[in-house]
Known about the structure:
This protein is about 25% helix and about 30% strand.
Amino acid sequence: MERESAEERLESEIGRLLLSEEAIRQRVKALGADIRTAYSSTPFTLLGLLNGSLLFTADLLRELPPETEVLFWRVQSYRGTVSTGFPEGLEAERGDFAGRAVLVVDDILDSGCTLLAVEKRLRALGACKVDYCVLLAKRRARTAGAPVPRWIGFEIPDRFVIGYGLDYEGRYRGLRSIRVLAEETVLPEK
Ligand code: HPA
Ligand code: MG
């Protein structure tokens, strides 16, 4: 019997395709062009939120002017497929943001509790202008006061997704496409 292709294996074992590598590539390029125009006369810092925005920030950065400064903060609010509602790690993050414009990059806008906490931390550190660019935004209600992103790559259904930086228990971040995690997915041993 013919061997299943890698793509078929992903589809059956990990989850169905939501956004292809090519669709993501094109959208990131378009977002980059928009951001270049919007910030053409404002120096800014690109602030990626780890771990999820690792690939998105790297790809977006390559669409921005060469002098663009980039920093990463580490923040976590998910355990498995469930949000704890309490972003952890921001107390340890600092930086010289006084009077600075910051563009925060995140993989996914879900409840909005992470962006709300990041906004508070950046304001406390003196940032004068904070915008948000998220690759994905789930269609669902947000935490009261959560910032509204200036840029959204794709609006998606309220399902748990993986790939292109998004994980399930630390796995699948390296997938080039974004997939809806199959409910029956069984993790291989670490
Ligand atoms: N997948 C992975 N990480 C996430 C998600 C998701 O759907 N929502 C919030 N963090
Ligand atoms: Mg995660």
